[in-house]
Amino acid sequence: MPKTPCPLCLADTTTTILWSDAFCRVVWVDDADYPGFCRVILNAHVKEMTDLPFTEKRRLMDVVFAVEAAIREEMRPDKINLASLGNMVPHLHWHVIPRWTDDPKFPDSIWSAARRESPRRTSPPGLGTAIALRLAAAL
């Protein structure tokens, strides 16, 4: 039986890339409950952080931290969640998720059941571009 190709290794023309280099890319996650949600994806198919040499671990985390800083500056969330699970897709990637205390699932993870109805937040016009510009300057 053929192995299913990794969705993070396949070319995806539907994803908005905010920043990229030969090592990794930052993509926009279209989620109405969490505007500003981004994902940092390693370009190489690597399963765990400990599979990377120290310099590459540091480089990947520098990108994750730059994304966090850009989202904090642009969105002013109450909290940022950083998550690297890889249970469904065993390809190294980090979720950088802005959170608000009144979001539907706070304080639980965004993958938990909703606790409340919440007002819909909308992305400010040009949010993706603003984050992309901050990343370009930082990285």
Q: Count the helices. How many?
A: 2
**Total strands:** 5
Query: How would you sum up the major sheet?
Result: 5 strands, antiparallel
Tell me the count of domains: 1
**Lateral strand order in the biggest sheet:** 1-2-3-5-4
Helicity range of the residues? 10-25%
Structural class: alpha+beta
What distance separates the N and C termini? 42 Å
Oligomeric nature of the chains: single chain
CATH homologous superfamily identity: HIT-like
Can you tell me the overall shape?
A: globular
Describe, in short, the structure shown:
The chain is α+β, with helices and mostly antiparallel strands and 139 residues long.
Overview of the structural elements:
There is one protein chain. Helices cover 24% and strands 19% of the residues. It has 139 residues and is α+β, with helices and mostly antiparallel strands. The chain has a single domain (17-138), classed as HIT family, subunit A (2-Layer Sandwich), CATH 3.30.428.10. A hairpin with a 3-residue loop joins strand 1 (17-20) and strand 2 (24-28). The protein is globular. The model has no long low-confidence stretch (mean pLDDT 92).
Architecture blueprint of SSEs:
Blueprint: E1 17-20, E2 24-28, E3 38-42, H1 54-75, E4 79-83, E5 93-99, H2 127-138
Antiparallel strand pairs: 1-2, 2-3, 3-5, 4-5
Helix pairs in contact: 1-2
